[in-house]
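<goal> How does this chain fold?
<sample>
Here is the protein in question

***
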Amino acid sequence: VFVSRSKDEKYSTVLCSRSPEVLKENSASGIGSWDWNLNGHSSTYHALYPRAWTVYEGEPDPLLRIVCRQISPFIPHNYKESSLPVAVFTFTLVNLGNTAADVTLLFTWANSVGGVSGFSGHHYNSKIRMKDDVHGVLLHHKTANGLSPITFAIAAEETNGVHVSKCPCFVIDGNSQGISAKDMWHEIKEVPCPFLLPV
């Protein structure tokens, strides 16, 4: 999340209270270079299956409350549809200060198969725009052993006061061509705008 109230008052952090161990190896240009400074002392996580929500109270901006609500489908007596890899995330932002705040939320999704880079396994991503001003990115994944390919999506609705930008991919590490995770993070810090960024 990136928050800007004035030229002198800016905050940014990954909404995770700890930096995963794997990031230490890729700190120069990968996601280890991002701002992993959320301490979590003022954040609370709640779970009531199939719902969950996290409240970030004054983190990273002391005058901002961020609530992330998540739900996965659960249909009684319907195992098939309840097993679909689907989730909805809703963010609510409450400005408790006296000055306006520009907030950018960044949502990423890693290559589900893994590999040397996000392009391993011949995965590719594409931008989409649907009715009702829903914008997103389709993540096309090939599977192993002759199984059918699968496509995931990240999408958000553009509304009054909410602008959605998309970047189909960025480089986490390695020697692949493209915008690096470090460059992408720095660009958003300098010129805040909302992004949907799958990895």
User: Anything to note?
Assistant: Helices lie at 79-82, 181-190. The CA atoms of residues 3 and 103 lie 5 Å apart. The longest strand covers residues 64-71.
